[in-house]
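Fold it.
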Amino acid sequence: MIKGSVAGRTGRMAGDGRPERVLIAASFVNRVGNGLFNAASALYFTQVVGLPAVQVGAALTIAGVVGLGAGLPGGHLADRRGARTITVVALVIQALAMVSLTLVESWAALTLIATVDRVAAAAGDAAWGALVVRVGTDRPARFRAKLRTFVNLGVILGTVGAGLALAADTRSAYVALITGNAASFALCALLLLLLPRYPVLAAPPHGRRRLAFRDRPFLTFTALYGAMGLQYPVVSLLLPIWIAEHTEAPHWTVAALFALNAAFCVLTQTRIGSRIETPQDGGKAFRTAGLLFLVSCPMMALAAYAPVWAAAGLVLAAIFVHSLGEVWESSAGFALGFGLAPDHAQGQYQGVLGLGFSAGQALAPTILTTVVLGLGTAGWLLLALFFATLGAAGPALARWGTRTRPRPEVPADVTG
């Protein structure tokens, strides 16, 4: 009896129906593979293959820039050919690209294969967004929150596995990580075949193509969301450098902050995100995220002026606040990004949103390392005000977006 109740709770946690559980499982498998690969890829190409770090960075930059534009046609294809089909095709291409990386011996080969991978990833991400909308129809906010919870959990487990391979530091261990990521793409594709073949939603008659590019509220949100996305490399890039160069906090604090950030997001995403359903909820959540970042960034800056243990405590407390902001920000992104998009064009809209977010991530390292680190404490305060200003626009943006959505057509009365 007890075992049955535990199993029931686990099943409800994973999803409310078979399609939800399938998509959550597929996402979890995929993210475990990502965690395996991302933590060790740079070391494989530099330490094992022997490519200079500058060449590796250039190859990945080229791949990322070329891949930026693939989300738009990928999303359009998902709307017209089916989100499941396009997502599966993209995953198969990524699996083949990962296997091919184990054969790389030159910069040109790395650039070509990485570009194919990034193009498939961008197209697949747009199609995935459309698929999430089709699967999570009953309680979409709750489903998306659960989905992101398992995504974070998958990345954590994958990163732990990568740590074991990094400790071994052998070619075979690195190759195992890459092929493990390839297997995750393949298994994810197979799992998606268990989903129903959702019918393509017809566009309204006389509807415009490239609708998302004419949607000014959505384009404005895309710009704000891409800019707010700078908060992610604050944790992964900016804060580790700040800790190492400007504080007395021990270096193990860097590992602790990564663990705390991931664990906090896993534990709170569903609790918070399931309550943020409508665009109006999303606008308020966006404002809340900006206010939390307004608090966390100065705390990170103050760590430079504290003795060793106080500095470590400040950094960990700042990560707690920042992680809370991340959960509110991601939940706002779901509510506004999906809520403002028409059902028949979800792929197209997710492609545009992904383009804006990726552009922000591409610019983030330069902005954070030159402006924020260059200005020191003043840079952190400027960053905090930047996030708060972006967040403050959330409620007005949600009202604008809701007001400009097309009203559903009411059938004419033909009863006479």
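The chain has two domains: 18-192, 211-403.
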